[in-house]
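Appendix B. Chain record.
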Amino acid sequence: MLSAYPELVEFLPCESPKAWVNWALENQTLLLNDHAHCEKKAASTAMSLMYRYVDRDNLLHKMSRLAREELLHFEQVHKIMRKRDVAYDHLTASRYAEGLRKHIRTHEPARLVDTMIIGAFVEARSCERFAALAPHLDEELSKFYISLLKSEARHFQDYLELAKEYSNEPIDDRVAFFRDLEEKLITEPDEEFRMHSGPPSLM
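Structure tokens predicted for this chain:
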């Protein structure tokens, strides 16, 4: 499924652990809940960037479109949840996003560049996980997750292109830095299942 997106596959440090895929299949109610939260957070992040960087024309264009698409995805997930009588509950955030964002540099444009690189990893990982789950889900969810691949892959590209555009230097070293962090966050065990958690802890 991801063969159409070779740059995305190469960008990520690893595939999602099989143990995480099995954990997701055992917790589909929680999967839908956290997926909805992720789409809403993604839209909120895009809007926040638009407010913070009002002088970045290409960013405004790409983030505006991204925010609209993420809100549509939220509506689609929420519709599926309502159809299945799945309550939309408050959830604690996974360690994934914070584990990446705490390493964002504080001066500009480095802060913006790091934020864009992290956005690329989040979107790429979401795309990879939808593809990993789709073959194992019921027909409705499988079709829905497959339908998200194209937009998630484009969001990955948008974030990566913006990182390159606004950086004063090549971004390869920062991408490699965050790739190492991302691999640890994806492969090290977690106690709570989330869309971007690691595999289940054996404890």
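Further analysis of this model is presented in Appendix C.
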